[in-house]
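User: For my dataset I need records formatted as: sequence, then structure tokens, nothing else. Please produce one.
Assistant:
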Amino acid sequence: ISPVGGKEATTHCRIVSKHAYRSPKRQRGDPNGDTIGKSQIITKVELKPKTGRTHQLRKHMKLIGFPILGDKRYGGTEVFECGDRRLHLYAVRLRFDHPTNGSPIEVAVTEPQYFP
């Protein structure tokens, strides 16, 4: 997507799905305190970094206007409107070459159930 820290950084991004979501948090300024938060769209994406810069995925997602849910460093306060303060960034598959012998290594896990 763009340079990170002055160095070239590449991330491929693909939309997997979109979900309508209504925040369980109360709306600020509601005099009765009984209006549930605004409706919003949560987009699940697949990110494939081609380089490995510090915070690359988090910085790239902020740059294109889609901060990662729960990212208090790069996402701002609106990323907590779902009521869940976890960083919703999770690797379901990692693939890399072994650092000494160069053989490919791949590790895969299932996605956590708390993801929308």
